[in-house]
């Protein structure tokens, strides 16, 4: 798997959508009491922030 910085913007958007869906599923599992690994929510949120940061950085460079 490529590092996040090496992926193009389209791949990052696809990855971001997947992570947002995963975050939603984890939150639903947490509310229903089925989630045992609570730390996964924090990891997914950090990955989302990393991707959003890279996308924003690339947009600012283009301007």
TrEMBL record:
GO cellular component: ribonucleoprotein complex; ribosome
A molecular-function term among this protein's GO annotations: structural constituent of ribosome
Keyword Ribonucleoprotein carried by entry: yes
Cited Gene3D superfamilies: 6.10.140.1970
UniProt keyword Ribonucleoprotein present: yes
Record GO biological process: translation
Keywords associated with the record: Ribonucleoprotein, Ribosomal protein
Family: Belongs to the universal ribosomal protein uL29 family.
HAMAP family xref list: Ribosomal_uL29
Protein name: Large ribosomal subunit protein uL29
Organism of derivation: Buchnera aphidicola (Cinara tujafilina)
């Amino acid at each position: 798997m490529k590092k996040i910085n090496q992926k193009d913007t389209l791949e990052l958007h696809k990855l971001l959508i997947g992570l947002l869906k995963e975050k939603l599923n984890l939150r639903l599992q947490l509310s229903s009491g089925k989630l045992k690994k609570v730390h996964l929510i924090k990891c997914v949120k950090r990955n989302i922030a990393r991707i959003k940061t890279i996308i924003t950085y690339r947009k600012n460079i283009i301007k």
